[in-house]
From TrEMBL:
Residues 76-96 are annotated as: Disordered. The lineage of its organism: Bacteria, Pseudomonadati, Pseudomonadota, Betaproteobacteria, Neisseriales. It comes from Vogesella fluminis. This is C2H2-type domain-containing protein. It comes from the Bacteria.
Amino acid sequence: MATKRDLSSPLDSVSFRCNPCRHTFDAEPDAVEDDPSATHHPYRYTAACPQCGQPSGQAPYHKGLLKAWANATGPKTAEGKAATARNLDGHPTPEEAKRTRFNAMKHGMNAETAQYFPAKPDGYPTCASCDVDRDYCRNQPACVRQTQLFMVTHAAFEQRNPKHLMPIMASMQASITAIIQQILQTIIADGVKLETPAWAISREGDVVLGEYRDLATGDLHRIMEVKAHPLLKPLQEFLSRNNLSLADMGMTPRVIEQEEQKLGRLQQGDGPPTMSLEDYAAKQAESMAALRVLAERANARKQADPVLVEYQQQNGGGQ
């Protein structure tokens, strides 16, 4: 086990972060000042950025590492280290392995699947909005964001748990809706039809526009070709594949009529309608009539009961 680092003296090499140009670099500090507020390592470091020359301070993640090293605990004697090693005997169990098999999702940069997404800063379309440090990304074996997306999707399908994909699908659906809105705005601004002059190439290789002269007035008219807006087709595909058509949203007359017809019919579960509302009312009336007959029969048997008749005679009349 490595010995605990001595943080009582200034460091010879420090990781710096330049805020103006966002450059991260390791270098020997140009200036070392006392910092009583940091009890674990009371020193403040400064160095000039090799890219822009601006003074840079110690990187926040390096300060966190120094604090973690200062607060680190563990066995120091040989007996304590041996006892810690014995605690690992028999572990992980099959149940523990099942629970911890996705721990690498937090650190999946070394996973085999990460080889599909090599790290290339500003080389992917998503790099424009990525907040990962470019120097950090350049030193990784794979793209951080692409690997996270791959591992989350892989875990969702392996566990058969779609809840892991809900944030991704929500963002994707929101993006598609935004694209549809932009297509609609473009079509409305340009018009559903586009007119372009008809043209052809003559034998001499010149471009000739299609024109004709009105014999009655002598005016020269240009022949125009009318075409539907090219964005109408992708708009239709977006709407149909995302269940955004009028029929899917229940807005066509036929669908509305079918829904109104279903309001007067009873259904059992998700199956087809089994009984209309009129049939159900007739069935209820028959049941009530049969129930009335049964009540009259029960009342007649009660009045003819010998015990009840004797009780009524002894009490001077019946109820």
